[in-house]
Amino acid sequence: MIRFSLRFVGLLSLAAAFILVIYDGTKSIAGNAVAITTVRGLWETLNAASLQSLRPLIENSIGRFAWDPVFAGFLGTPSWAVLGLFGIVLILLGRKRRPLIGYAR
Questions:
Q1: Domain total in the chain
Q2: Structural domain range at position 35
Q3: What's the average model confidence in pLDDT over 72-94?
Q4: How far is the C-alpha of 60 from the C-alpha of 64, rounded, in Å?
Q5: Whole-model pTM above 0.85?
Q6: Which of 1-5, 30-34, 55-59 is least confident?
Q7: Which residues pair with 78 in a beta bridge?
Q8: Residue-by-residue DSSP string for 21-78
């Protein structure tokens, strides 16, 4: 059941990444310029209040160095790449193990 859940969430994540690639592509074609939806832009679209409350939490618990170079860099990455990588990792974690051949253990 856990493998199925991991593969299902991974597949949904890959589907969302594909939708965001199509969205960015059509936006780029329509605007005659490259348009990339960042993680920050997607997060602010979905729930801006949680992003605003996350910054003080990270700065107080880990330190100021964790927000600016690390987490701000993560928020600047393309959202389709993050969702795609997350989906690939979940699908790989949920795959079936290879059967052993012979006596190798």
A1: 1
A2: 2-93
A3: 94
A4: 7
A5: no
A6: 55-59
A7: 38
A8: HHHHHHHHHHHTS----BHHHHHHHHHHHHHHHHHHHHHHHT-HHIIIIIIHHHHTSB
